Structures are given as C-alpha cells and as structure tokens.
Amino acid sequence: MRDYVGTEAGRAAKGLRVTIVRGVPSPWGEAVKGLLHVKDLDWLPVSFDAQDEALAAWTGEVSAPVAMFDDEAPKPGAVEIMQLIERVAPDPVLVPEAQADQVLQMAEQLLGQGGLAWSRRLQQVHAGLTKGAGFSAGVAGYLAAKYGYQADAGESYGETVVALLRAFSETLAASDGPYLLGAKLCAADIQLACVIGLFAPLPQEVCAMHPKARAAFETMDEETRSALAPNLLAHRDHMYATHLEMPLTL
What we know:
Blueprint: H1 7-12, E1 16-20, H2 27-39, E2 44-47, H3 53-59, E3 67-69, H4 78-88, H5 100-111, H6 116-130, H7 137-146, H8 154-174, H9 187-195, H10 211-218, H11 222-227, H12 230-242
Parallel strand pairs: 1-2
Antiparallel strand pairs: 1-3
Helix pairs in contact: 2-4, 2-9, 5-9, 6-7, 6-8, 9-12
C-alpha cells in the first residue's frame, strides 16, 4: 500500500507523481493505478483536494488524475497519461504499435469526454436531479455544474452508456482471446475493468466504499442493466484476478 502525500511534498519530489481522488473507486484514477501496477512502475500518489489552490496551480487542473513526470508539463487526460506511462516504462507493452490507434480510440471511448465513464457519471447526475436515484441531490448538483450536465440532454447520457456497453461487449465476444485485442493484454483492458466499477463495484471486502456511494454506483435502469452483459463482468473479474491489485486502496 502506497502512502499518499500532499501538494507540497508531491511538488518537491522527482519522478512520476499522480493526483488521485480519494474515497471512491473513480475509474479515471483506478485505471492509472492499474496501468502503473501492471508496469510495476515507481510513482508517488498525491491526494486530490478540489479546494487546494496550490494543487490547481501546480497541475493546471481542478480534477484528477493529473500526472507529473520530473519537470515536464502536467498530463491531465486519460490518453496523455497512458502515453506517458508507456513511454516511461515501455515493458510490458500495453499500447502495441500495430494497434495503437485502436487502443487510443478505446481509451477515449472509455475515459474521454463524452465516453462511457463520462456519460455514466452524467447519467447518475440526471437520475439524482430528476428521479431521486443515482447520486444524491447535493453530489449531483456539484457534478452537474463541474462537468457540463444539460437537463434537456438528460436521457441521451443513458443512451450513450447503453450503446458503448453493447459495443465493448461485442468487441469482447468477437475476440479470439480473453482480452479486447485477443490473446494479449492492452491498456484498454485495464481501463474497461475499472470503468465497469461505475456499474458493479467490487465487493466491499476488497473495495471499501461508503454505503451511499456504493448504492449510487449500483443504481441502473433496466436498459442499462441489460446492456451490462455477463462478458463485461467476466472480463472485469479476470482482470482483477490476474493483473490488477486487490484490495483497492481508496
């Protein structure tokens, strides 16, 4: 288990430092931690605090994760962080050159703006603001303002979620191996496993969540529940059993 540090210690350090949201299995942070675990790369986790002006000044962001490597410019996006990790620790290969475009596209579909995790978050915001489900009204209001929720587009978030869940399920079904690209693990496998936690978190004994947060994550309408195909859950379970660290450190 790694010890998290504050902004001052993180900024003074060298090497790779990554800001991480604490207390919940955010798929953005968990995916970065998963990549680093598979790479066995030394890094320093920095606790994210949305009220910390010094942290925002250092990283240039009011969200996490953001990766800082030595004196390079901060890397705030899922794809940028994935590419940085691949460059710093090229072995084992998680973004194979021959399939790099496909892996980058899947990373955007999973963790980019408008992708599966992004749309799932706004789906739960919409549920919290209009249906008394999903995120609580207070959390939903905060996330709505921060991530561009639009009430008139509320139902479209769920439609995007369902479409992307089905697309990734179809990719796995068509694969000739246990992974998205067949027999070889890639970065998108790690990202997909972590994003599925927004629908079906790992058991409490290995993913210690507040009951209200767990209930919010697990809330799904019938169409979303139907799209969360068994092979997506089986892939998630295989990833954690074979490649990813448990219990989760939140």
